[in-house]
Each structure stands twice: as structure tokens, then as C-alpha cells.
Amino acid sequence: MSAETSVPRPREPGLDISDSDLFRGLMSEAPFAFAFFNPDGRFVRVNSTFTELTGHPVELHLDRRPAELLPADLTTLIEAALRRIAGEALPVTDQRIRTRADNGDSRHWTVSFFPMHDDDGVVGTALFGVDVTERQLNEEVLERSEERYRSLVESQQQLVWISSPSGSVAEDAPQWRAITGQGLEEYLAHGWLDAVHPDDRPGTEEAWREALRGRTMFEWSYRVRTRASGYRHFEVRAVPIIRHGRVVEWVGANTDVTPQREAEEMRGRLTDQLGAAALRTARLQGATAQLAEALTVEQVVQVIIDVGRTALAADHSSVALLDLDRATLKLISSGGTPDTRGEEIDLAQPNVMTMAVNSRRPLFAESPDSLRAQLVDAGAEEAQISGFLTQTDERAWVGLPLLAAGRALGALRFAFTRTQKISQEDGVFLEALAGQCALAVERATLFEREHKTAETLQRSLLPERLPVVRGLMLAYRFRSGSRHVQVGGDWYDAFVLQDGRVAAVVGDVMGKGVKAAAGMGRIRNAMRALALTNPPPAAVLTGLDRVFEATEEEEQVTTLAYMVVEPGTGEGTLALAGHPPPLLVSPQGVGLLHETEPGTPLGWATSRKQFRFCVPPGHTAVLYSDGLVENRKRGLDAGLRELSSVVAEAPPEVLSSPNMLLDFLVDHMLSGYEQDDDVTVLAIHVPPATKSD
Q1: Which of 86, 104, 184, 496 is the most exposed place for a label (fewest CB within 10 A)?
Q2: CA 106, chain centre distance (Å)
Q3: Residue 502: is it exposed, middle or buried by C-beta count within 10 angstroms (0-12/13-18/19+)?
Q4: Which of 560, 602, 563 is nearest to 580 (CA)?
Q5: Which residue spans traverse the membrane (predicted)?
Q6: Neighbouring-strand partners of residue 160
Q7: Burial group, residue 481, by CB count within 10 angstroms (0-12, 13-18, 19+)
Q8: Buried b (16+ CB within 10 A) or exposed e, 568-605
Q9: SS3 326
Q10: CA 443 to CA 643: how far, in whole Å?
Q11: DSSP 8-class letter at 472
């Protein structure tokens, strides 16, 4: 009897399967499961290892069919193999089965069936089973590892490839060809370079050759043409596989980094946009701050021109204000406005500014063709447009209407000597700028109107000339210190009393504008009336206190210095209402401040006093407002000391001329300081006595 397999084995004489002792000894030591079935499919022999597969003792198997003992899956496998052997007398090999032990552990087996022959034919079937649990687990671990690797590669969008030691591609890379659309023949050898972007190919090829020569890692990035004829960004890394000092192959991986590149480009664009937005915001804030300080139309126009040059990089800037009565735009700044004729533009004449005003919308012309098309639509003549475009170097234009509460005030015009792409964000910025400019223009227009009214009022209240009196010389200086060109409450006056003496006064109504000027006018007129009826300074100030309480508001502060002087002799009296003391200047250049009580401002309950004040011949008395001696950087006391010391620097010819003396004092006291208040100065000079006198 023999057991035939696919590889015949030599028969061993004297071996009888019926020799139970020999069989038992062999089977008990065998590391594999064994079972023998008779032609009827019943168990004849099993070893102990087989019982690990079935879970039953050896004795229980004998003379039983598999279906009586074994699980359905194992029974099915065995019976199918027995039937096949009975019919074909051929082995059935490498059948896989898994069993589960009582403790829940799974075991994996490889089972093979072989027919057993004697001279009469098949006498039974032998089953051999090998425990391949460890191998199965290793295979599963390897398979999971491969799956993880494959998933990782796929998730990283990597294309793995292999090349020969010389760098030529010898194996297919389906993923690469799926992306590039290359055929196998196109891809093999060095065909993959054909898919690299033409601009990237020279550098890529040289870097690859350098890596091959040096047997160093190849790291590069390039764009690859896709099947759809677009390009994607890839980063490649390849390493040489070296055995026994020789490169046997190169293994590389291409990683699709297009999303990262696109994200970087998007971040770059967003950063640029945010930077541009921040810059536009800063420019708008800067322009708003400048416009807030510009209160005259002239100042507003200058700010607009500066903003056009700095914030917009405009080569030409123009501003025009609307004259509704004449249906024209009047150019306030016409520098670089070649499409206009004269200082006035008829609204019916199509150009950048009139179109912006008429439509109440911004006009953006990014090129001459764009401007031409818009002007033609507005009814401009082709010859006129061509003539303008031929004469100018401008190549882009912006026209912005100045709108306040929906009402057109005028227009802004910015022009560039290059074509200019104007984005939506630029348009928003320009409209916001125009809105701020419109508010500034409206505010400046109202301010100038108020200023003109107040200035007219102030001038009407101040004397046009000082009286000419024998034995006395009078002079005055007034210098506005308002940055906003507003009129203030400073005033001066001098007039002859009924007894021939001269009354002189310098006063200061705190505040600016029409209100201060009107208050100054009331006090000045009241003082004249009181002085002409009862000239002593104390009496005049007492009367002014009553007038002030009756006509002025409590928070109004008004100060003044009032004196009465005898022409020729200079004898006089002085009264102060909260005002700095007068300065007496000698012919030798000595300046003395009159030491007297300053008193309180008008309207404060107090007993007014007057003091003797003499201006000897050759001397000059100077009355002044606090703007001469006090500012943000210099206090009143320091200013008074400086005023006395400045007199000593005056040359003799200045000391003898009240007009020259006032110019000298004002210039020297304001030198080095920013004037922030009105300066009013009045000089009373008594000429030296002559022999004829």
C-alpha cells in the first residue's frame, strides 16, 4: 500500500499501515495533524494533533463519519475532498480552514488529502494538516502594513516609481500615466520628462543627472502636464538603493502639492489684499485727519492735491466747485486739466468732471479707449476726443463727484500717465475719499462764509485810523493767530476826550467767531459812551461791569487795559480789568512793566481802582493782549520777563518810532514760537520836548 502525492515517493519495503505500534509511534511525535479514512469515509486513525483541530479525543473519532463529530465547515471540506479522491484518485491540497479553541483563540490550518493505494487500488485517504496560525498572523500583519502604506501613499497623493541605475524608467507607473495621459511607450525610459512643464524641464533634467552622478538623494519640484492639459505641482524625492557598493535601482515618490501651492498663493493674495486694504484705510484716515484741519476751501484743495499725489500716485489732480446759477464748474485747482478750456467748465461739455457731476457717480477710465467710449456715449465729438488724447500724456482717469446729502458740490479729477487698473476695492476707497472731501469742502465753504461775515463785523467795529493829536503819536499792530483764520475778540481803540486828553484801550473777548466779534463790538461801544460822559478809568470800568452783567453771558470772559493820557506831558491814569500791565519803554531801551493790581475781568463784582500812569516825553507806553507774551510753550510770567528784556535789544532808531518799535516787539516775541492766539498791540508815544515847545 502506498500514499501517492503529486510527487511520487519511493516505496519502503516492510512498511505496513496496519502495524499499529509503528504507526502510533510515528503519529504521536508528528508535528502535524493526521487522519486516515477508509473508503466509506470513516475515521480509521487520528493523531493527537488532529484532536486540536476537532476538539474531540482520539477514541471518539474511530469508525465515525466526520459529520458525526465535526463542525459543519470542517465536515464539508473533508467530505468534498473524500468524494473527489474517490472519483479521481488525485490529491486535494492546500485547503485552508480556521478553528476556534475553547478559550476563544482562533487557529489556522492548511489541510491536504492524499489517496492511499495498494495493489488492488485506493484503500483509503490520508489527511495531513499543518498549523499555519503564526504564518497567517504574519501574513495578516504584512497585509495590514501594506494596506496602511498603500492608504498612506494614496492619502498623500504620492506616485511611486522605480528606475534603473542609469535613471531610465523600466517599470510601469499606472498612477503617473493616469494623471499625465501618457501611454506606456511614452512613459518608459526618459519619456516622463515630456510631461514636465517646458520652463521646469531643463532644471529638473540637470538636477536628476546630478543626483545620478553623485548617487545622492534627488529632491526637486516641478509642474506636470495633466491629461486635461492643465498643470499640477509635484514634489519628488528619490533615493538610490545600494547593494555591495553599487546602485541597483532608484525608488522615488512624487507628491502632488498643488493644493498646498494653491493655498500658499491664496494666502499670498489674501495677504496682499489685506495689506492693500490696510494701506487704503491708513491713507483714508490720513486724508480725513488732514481734511479735518483744513477749514478753508484753499486748504482743502491743497490736501486733496497732496492726497492724490501720495495716496493715489496720481500725476495730475484737479478740483472744481459747482456754480448752479451759471451751470458751470469753476476750477479751484486746474493744474493738469488739459480737457478744459479756461477756469470755468460748462456742464454740457462732456469731460471727466462734468460727467461725474451730471451722473452723480464716479467715472473710472482705465485706458484711453475706455475714456473714448464713455465720452462718445456722453455726446462728445470724436474730433475733440482725439485732439485731447493726442495732446495729453494722460492714460487713465478718475472723476469723482463731491456729494453732500445728495447735493453736488463739485468734482475731483485724478489722472495718471499710465494705464491704471482700478479694482472694486480701489473704487470703494475713492468713493469714501470723495465723501470726506465733499464734507470738508462743505465745511470750508460755510466757514469762509461765517469768517467773511465776522471779519466784516470786526473791521466795522475797529477804528479805520487812529486820531492824530499834537504832542502824542499813536500806532497799532494786529496779527491774527488763528490757524483756522477765524476772527477773534481782540480789539484796540483810541479817541480824543472832550477835555483834549486821549483815551487808549486794548481789550480781549475770549473766544472766536461771530459771537466773540459781536461781544467785542458791544463792549467797545459801551466803553466809548461811558468814557465820553465820565472819562476817569475807574468810573469807566465800573460802568462796563454793569453793562456786562446786563448784556453778556456769565461764562464770557473779557479783559482790558484802559488809560487816559495828556498829550505833550504824558500824564495820565490807568485801570486794568484782568489784563496784563502796560510796558513803559524809555529812550535808552529800558522796559518797565507797570506795577499795579491786574484787577478782575469785566462783570466780576469788585471795586474798580485807577492808578497814576505817566509817559514822560521820549517814552512809549505799550498796551497789548496776552497773545504777545503767552502761548502753549511760554507761560505769562516768563513772557512778561522776556518782553522787558527784548526792549533792551532795540536799536535807538526803533525806540524813537512807535511803528518800528511795535514791529520789533512783535517779531522778537513771536520768534521761535507757534502763534496760537491773536496779537494786538497799541503804542502811545510822547515825543521829546523841543526848544520851540
Answers
A1: 104
A2: 66
A3: buried
A4: 560
A5: none
A6: 253
A7: middle
A8: bebbbbbbbbbbbbbbbbeeeeebeebebeebbbbbee
A9: coil
A10: 39
A11: B
How does pLDDT run across 600-610, given as a tens digit for each residue? Answer: 999 887 889 99
Q: Which residue has the cell 498829550?
A: 567
Cell of 321: 466747485
Q: Which of 387-391, 433-437, 509-513 has the highest mean pLDDT?
A: 387-391
Is 100 or 234 the better-scoring residue by pLDDT?
Answer: 234
Residue type, 478: F
**pLDDT score for 452:** 73
Which residues, 6+ apart, have CB-to-CB distance to 181 below 8 Å? 226, 227
What residue type is 625 in one-letter code? S
- Would you say 132 and 108 are in contact if contact means Cβ atoms under 8 Å apart? yes
CA distance 131 to 688: 141
Rounded Cα distance between 22 and 172, Å, is 58
Whole-angstrom CA distances from 352 to 42, 345, 361, 410, 689 are 110, 11, 11, 12, 72
CB atoms within 10 A of CB 77: 20
User: Residues 226-272: pLDDT tens digits?
Assistant: 988 889 999 999 999 999 889 999 999 898 888 888 888 888 777 77
Q: All 3 cell numbers of residue 111?
A: 489541510
Give the chain's length: 693
pLDDT band at 523 (very low <50, low <70, confident <90, very high): confident
Instruction: Give the amino acid at 335.
Output: G
